[in-house]
Amino acid sequence: MAPVFCPKCGTRSPDPSGKFCTTCGAELSSPQGRAPVAGQVASLKWLVAGIGIGVILLIALVLILAIPLGMLSASPAGSAAAGPVPAGTLSALATPLTTTVPPATTVPATPELTAVTTITTPVPTTTVPVTLRRTRVSVTPKETVSLDVNPTLTELTVASSAGSQITLPSTQVPTQPPSGSYLSSNPKAPVIEPSALEARIHELINLQRSQNGLSTLGYDSFLASIARGHSWDMVVRNFFEHENPDGLNARARGEAAGYPCKKEYGTYYTEGLSENLYQGYRYNNYWTAPNGTTVKYEWNSLEQVAQQAVNGWMNSEGHRKNIVDTHFTQEGIGVAFSTDEKIYVTENFC
């Protein structure tokens, strides 16, 4: 007898004569109708086999299509076939693909590729030029009129003695500037000989007197020593006045040195030195960098320093009055230099 299969679940019935399936309980067909059920099972097997073969073929097709895409993503950047891949773009293949590439296959430019863009370009050796600031220093004297421009007047009761003005048996010459103090710490500064500068200022003073119809002044070396001592005192104690920190003015300093300077004016006479002061610099201009460092000086020559001192005095009423005073017959010039390039000039009259 032919085997009987369940038309619902396909289970073979152990009893060909049974009416119901022992597995699912479905009614079994008659022996005449059982053969087609076996045929259906065979057809189902072939259908499943066909589906499996189709799946295998589909997988093979996907693999075949995936090989060119793998070659595209694996091609080296900058190769001869594709060229360098710009950031944010894709390079085109020689043969377009018919399959749409999912957006996920777009490979963005990697940081390594971007780092290659740091190209070393030649850097110019010249940068933005440094702007220098030019400063011009004052070349005029301080507006200080000697406290002895009009010396103390005393009624003439006795005749003044003629002859030397030195009254002390031993002179009291103030401390003079050391020779090394006249040298600048800047090697580019011109050397100015102090005695030559004093002599040139004296010449220019007499030139001014001659142009005003006056007699020239004699040069008194003792007056010059008194003047030079005051110039050096101003450097050492850092002041610029006719009266020093000890309270001594030109008259008191002259008397302390034994040089009272008496001058007759007919019915009266005067006592005390008259004095002009000047403070200038070794340079006219200087240039500074943006950081404040001085990088350049415009130095003065000896002649420029002398001209600046005398012109400054002549442009000041009180100083000019001393220079053109008809009663003065002697003068002394004394200069001293400071470490910060200042030049002090003292002019004493008698």
Q: Sheet bearing the most strands, described?
A: 4 strands, mixed
pLDDT averaged over residues: 74
Secondary-structure element series:
EEHHEEHEHHEEEEEHHEE
| Number of alpha- plus pi-helical segments | 7
Strands ordered across the widest β-sheet: 5-11-12-8
Question: Which spans have pLDDT < 50 for at least 5 consecutive residues?
Answer: 32-39, 69-130, 142-164
Strand content: 15-25%
Radius of gyration: 59 Å
Q: What overall geometry do the principal axes of the alpha carbons give? A: rod-shaped
Ends: how far apart? 168 Å
Query: Which range best describes the helical content: under 10%, 10-25%, 25-40%, 40-55%, 55-70% or over 70%?
Result: 25-40%
SSE class:
alpha+beta
Account of the protein in words:
- There is one protein chain.
- A four-stranded mixed β-sheet has the order 5-11-12-8. It has a three-stranded antiparallel β-sheet with strand order 3-9-10, with no helix packed on it.
- The chain is rod-shaped and about 180 Å long.
- Helices cover 31% and strands 16% of the residues.
- Helix 3 (194-211) crosses helix 6 (302-314).
- The chain has helices at 34-74, 111-115, 194-211, 221-237, 250-256, 302-314, 317-323, and strands at residues 4-5, 12-13, 133-136, 152-155, 218-219, 262-264, 268-271, 274-281, 283-288, 294-299, 330-337, 342-349.
- With 350 residues, the protein is α+β, with helices and mostly antiparallel strands.
- Strand 6 and strand 7 (268-271) form a beta hairpin.
- Mean pLDDT is 74; it is low at 32-39, 69-130 and 142-164.
